[in-house]
Design a protein that fits this description.
The structure holds 2 protein chains of 2 kinds. By secondary structure, chain A is mainly alpha-helical. Chain A is 68% helix and 0% strand. Chain B is built from 6 helices and 7 strands, in the order ααβββαβαβαββα. Classes of the chains: A mainly alpha, B alpha/beta. Chains A and B meet through helix 3, helix 4 and helix 5 of A and helix 2 and helix 5 of B.
Chain lengths: 159, 185
């Protein structure tokens, strides 16, 4: 048991050493304030790396992501607003870098599609249920002949 | 009968969505649209690769339909692309401007003297600032610029005969015809 714990500690330690060795100047960037750091990291998390595509600017180790991340940090420290920084990114790399697409003509289907589908489903469900109820109500009125037939069948069942 | 048709709405919606999603399967995620198409080449003032005293600006490349080619010595696909660029340079169809992207000057010069220099002029973008402004996310990338200095098309990846014949050359011919019609050289 002791050796196992030692083994795991060694592995974890080696990981942390590797991490330290791979740290780049970007990751040791010193922000002017803690608030700036928080905002910059949040922003960089919400922007997609144009090269690696499935990673955000923080997760990715590609040179482009490092450059862009540094750019975001510096812009935040320079007092630029979120809108301005996002505009900076999209004017170069396109809407693609936004994990959360903007609400505009070509993304309406993304934003409103699910709501529209839900509404359509509700309407169809409503119509369906109503129809069922109406047909039930109709079925309850049976004619005299049907009633006689029913009685005959029931009586036969009694025997 | 009319009420029955209502029941088909979900099926129709499903089919429409299916068509969209099916089309999505054949998009190439590596081929991003450039946000700069239709916009002017970003303003820059950079040294010439071979001569630090000569400054090249975005105005230097105006007046003629041209190709901006982002390259570096650390980029294997650029080496693949290089012989084809040499061929294009010999044909003298349009000026090819090199953007030497995040590279070492000495290494880049050595590479060009060894392998041949297809570039009309080479812009030394050591910090990658011009690359950043162009929205470069890898190398090689090529930008087709019209005679007014407007970026018309970006191609990410190495240029080879197929890309040239099918995509770039027809666009270049069209842009050159436009330039001629507007009286540029």
């Amino acid at each position: 048991m002791k050796t196992l714990v030692g083994f795991i500690t060694a592995i974890l330690l080696s990981f942390s050493l590797v991490g330290a060795a791979m740290a780049t100047p970007v990751d040791t960037y010193e922000f002017k304030s803690v608030d700036n750091q928080k905002r910059a990291l949040e922003l960089a998390h919400s922007l997609r790396c144009p090269q690696c595509q499935n990673q955000n600017l923080i997760d990715s180790n590609s040179p482009v992501a490092q450059d862009l991340r540094l750019e975001v940090y510096q812009m935040v420290d320079a007092g630029k607003g979120d809108e301005e920084i996002i505009e900076f990114m999209t004017s170069r790399y396109g809407e693609f870098v936004l994990y959360k697409p903007r609400m505009e003509a070509k993304t309406y289907i993304l934003w409103l599609g699910p709501i529209a589908l839900l509404l359509v489903g509700l309407v169809i469900g409503f119509i369906f249920v109503r129809q069922q109820r109406i047909s039930n109500a109709v079925d309850q009125e049976i004619s005299a002949e049907e009633q006689a037939e029913l009685d005959r069948l029931l009586k036969r069942d009694d025997k | 009968m009319k009420k029955r048709l209502v029941l088909f709405i979900p099926l129709i919606l499903f089919l429409v969505m299916g068509v969209f999603l099916y089309k999505g399967l054949f998009l190439n995620p590596q081929q991003l649209d450039s946000a700069l198409e239709g916009k002017p080449v970003p303003a820059f003032q950079l040294q010439k690769l071979e001569d630090a005293n000569e400054i090249i600006t975005n105005d230097s490349i105006k007046g003629q339909v041209s190709l901006l080619n982002v390259w570096a010595t650390w980029c294997p696909s650029c080496k693949y692309e290089h012989p084809y660029l040499m061929r294009l340079a010999r044909q003298n169809i349009l000026p090819i401007y090199g953007i030497n992207y995040r590279d070492e000057r000495a290494m880049a010069i050595r590479e060009l003297s060894r392998e041949g220099d297809p570039y009309t002029k080479n812009i030394f973008d050591h910090d990658g600032r011009l690359g950043l402004d162009l929205g470069v996310y890898g190398a090689p990338e090529s930008y087709l610029v019209d005679h007014n200095g407007i970026i018309r098309f970006r191609y990410a990846g190495p240029i080879d005969m197929r890309v040239w014949n099918e995509t770039l050359y027809p666009m270049i011919q069209e842009l050159q015809a436009q330039a001629k019609a507007e009286g540029a050289s």
